[in-house]
Amino acid sequence: MAMIDNGPPDFRMYLPEIIKENYGKWEYHEHVKPGVLKHVGPAGALYTVRAGEPRLMSVDTIREICDIADEFCDGHLRFTSRNNIEFLTPKEENVEGIIEACAKHGFPVGGTGRALSNIVHTQGWVHCHTPASDASGIVKAVMDDLYEYFGTQTLPNKLHIAMACCLNMCGAAHCSDISIVAIHRTPPRIDHETVRKSSEIPPLVACCPTAAIRPNPKEKSVTVVEDRCMYCGNCYTMSPGMHIMDADNDGLAIMVGGKVSTARTDPSFSRMVIPFIKNNPPRWPEVTEAIRHIVETWINNANDGERLGEWIERIGWERFFSLTGLPFSELLIDDFIFSRETFHTSSAFKYTD
Amino acid sequence: MVENSKTPQLDELESGPWPSFVTEIKKAAAKNDMSKDLLGVLERSYHDKIGHWKHGGIVGVKGYGGGVVGRYTDLPEEFPAVKEFHTMRIAAPSGWFYDTNALRTLCDIWERHGSGITNVHGSTGDLIFLGTTTEELQPTFDELAENGFDLGGSGSDLRSPSCCVGPGRCEFACYDTLDMCYDITQEFQDELHRPMWPYKSKIKMSGCANDCVAAAARADFSVIGTWRDSIQIDNEAVKKYIEDGMDVREVVVKKCPTRCLSLSEDGELSVEASECTRCMHCINMMPKAIKQGKEKGATILVGAKSTIVQSAFMSWVLVPFMKMEAPYDEFKELVNTIWDWWDENGKTRERLGETIYRIGMGRFLRAVGLEAVPQMVYRPRANPYVFWPQDQIFAEANGGEN
């Protein structure tokens, strides 16, 4: 039997020599140009070329990435938390070669500084069991549409987009400048036989955050009080008999204004600004159009250096809605358990008529 | 094998400048029937607008409770090669540093045993092997283990800890995120591989408050690098920024959230250190001129999680400052104490933050033996409903101390 509990390999054996020498002693960094960073320490400089990858990759594509790293980086590379490749080399003269090789293999160079970085996302229809939409396809469509912002420095500040394929909101979608969240909108359809066969009733009842699920002794199953259900799908994770996916009514919501860094302002949640867009595969044009519109309104109105959420908090959300022309409705007003803190408790607001 | 090469909708996603995941699946499908059927299932989802995967029986490898996510298509007759199509989560090296030998080894193993499709990486930080049969799980694991690799976490266990690039390439790292991530991952192998808790638990380490792994947003234990003393200003370098055209007053001084920076007429930048909250803005803007303080460590925050079920939580301050040096005993002790409390008090599928929220910070702090400090809250409570510990009240009334 194989060894267990190896843990991950020790990262130290993968570090390039320049990193070992400058480890913990880095002095400063420069943004050389889109996608290229220069970090300087006592032992010299390290150049990083950042390139986007599709997250879902075949082993042959990983081997192509390895070929580039072998040719220019003595076999050293890393990946970022946002699905970017980073080619690492102390040789300035190798930077252009890496960029050319990336172009040849179709990896866009960019994602640094005041740019759109790659989208963090979930599995969607590729492999998830509760998705309300695909993830990879929407991400591909959005990145194609906003491609110009990945390899340039034309945004007020960085732009982090995340995509979650259900209301679980995996992937820090709740704290991103823009998040695309796939949502269910109808109560689960109960397959009593599957519930009976595969689920314990008490934990299934207990898992519901709004107490919408009640025992159904007659069926040895459960019932759902439909007007209490908020379609979160938690019950489907507990029992495969609680069918939450609904081809006709699932779709996407858009949330904006989140961030995780503390720079200037504290971390903040993304807030819903579009409650629903129908699933429209394969390229979801209504989603790409809505996101482009929000990004362009931000570019045209924000002060230099403002993240999307900082800009909105400065001008006020009422102004955000008037500038974007996005319709406001009661669907956007929180009515779950932490709603009160979002209500405007003063007469100091802006008229937007 | 059903002929399923007709994928008109997915084909649409091969055009455009961004690298295409469809092209990736097709590349794998040229060599592998599982990937070919994945393409078929996915095209069907694009047509039906619904997912075609279901969760099923528990699958895994010997000695482990986590690391494998069982997946089965609901269309097994049409797409028999993905009747079983399980995910394996492979623990990634700290900071996602690799060399090409390691990556090629992983590719070879996966090509032999699975679909040849990966995610580099999954959101938690593991390298994902996407799709293989139940039968191939153990042989895949055996080869991984022989080559020094291991599975990551899944289910109600410690999920694979992850960290930013830290001292490997960043002058902002206030502690050695890479080493700490590796150290605690090794320390907590049992917690990582054998689910035993109410729900998942995450530890994420960012070397500074820029928080490049979004620890504050999603980790039950967010370890955010910071310092205790004053930022260090090199005014020669400040002048260089000014000469190079930076409007330091506008883009640095005026954007300081506590207004603790001032710039004199002749370009001298100074700080009122006691008022600085170490937000990183000025350092981000002028990395050559402003350095962090010298007394470095981390703030420990707890409770972050994504939306499901009781709304999203951002993690909040528990320990304002902790030295972060190997072997990280103080941190490990704290985490163990809190896990014990959570294991005792948490309900099924309740993350740490939700348990604390339900039971109350006061009771939580008393239980884990931490003293309340004002840094834990933005502002104190606005209601008088204190859950007074009755034994203390009784003791005080009797003139005793407890």
Key descriptive features of the protein:
heterodimer; A: alpha+beta; Sulfite Reductase Hemoprotein, domain 1; Alpha-Beta Plaits; five-stranded antiparallel sheet; five-stranded mixed sheet; 15 strands; B: 402 residues; alpha+beta; 15 helices; 16 strands
CATH class type of the largest domain in chain A: Alpha Beta
**Total strands of chain A:** 15
Mean pLDDT of chain A: 96
Q: Report helical residue fraction of chain A.
A: 25-40%
End-to-end separation of chain A in angstroms reads 72 Å
Structural class, judged by helices and strands of chain A?
alpha+beta
Output the CATH class name of the largest domain in chain B: Alpha Beta
CATH names the topology of the largest domain in chain A as: Sulfite Reductase Hemoprotein, domain 1
Kindly describe this structure.
The complex is a heterodimer of chains A (353) and B (402). Chain A is α+β, with helices and mostly antiparallel strands and 353 residues long. Chain A folds into three domains: 11-105, 2-Layer Sandwich (Alpha-Beta Plaits), CATH 3.30.70; 120-185 and 247-342, Sulfite Reductase Hemoprotein, domain 1 (2-Layer Sandwich), CATH 3.30.413; 189-243, Alpha-Beta Plaits (2-Layer Sandwich). Chain A contains ten helices and 15 strands. Chain A has helices at 17-22, 59-72, 95-105, 136-145, 192-198, 201-206, 234-238, 285-301, 308-315, 317-324; strands spanning 28-33, 36-41, 44-52, 56-58, 76-79, 84-89, 120-121, 161-164, 178-183, 189-190, 213-216, 221-224, 242-243, 251-256, 271-278. In chain A, the strands form four sheets. In chain A, strands 1-2-3-6-5 form a five-stranded antiparallel β-sheet. In chain A, strands 7-8-9-14-15 form a five-stranded mixed β-sheet, covered by helices on one side. A two-stranded antiparallel sheet of chain A has the order 10-13. In chain A, strand 5 and strand 6 (84-89) form a beta hairpin. In chain A, helix 2 packs antiparallel against helix 3 (95-105) and helix 4 (136-145) packs across helix 8. The longest helix of chain A is centred in the last third of the chain and has 17 residues, at 285-301. Chain A starts with 16 loop residues before the first helix and ends in a 29-residue tail after the last helix. Chain B is α+β, with helices and mostly antiparallel strands and 402 residues long. In chain B, the strands form five sheets. In chain B, strands 8-9-10-15-16 form a five-stranded mixed β-sheet. In chain B, strands 2-4-7-6 form a four-stranded antiparallel β-sheet. Chain B has a two-stranded antiparallel ribbon with strand order 1-3. In chain B, a hairpin with a 7-residue loop joins strand 6 (117-119) and strand 7 (127-132). In chain B, helix 2 packs antiparallel against helix 3 (33-48) and helix 4 runs antiparallel to helix 5 (134-146). Chain B is globular and about 70 Å long. The chains are: A alpha+beta (353), B alpha+beta (402). At the A-B interface, strand 3, strand 4, helix 2, strand 5 and strand 7 of A face helix 1, helix 2, helix 3, strand 1 and strand 5 of B.
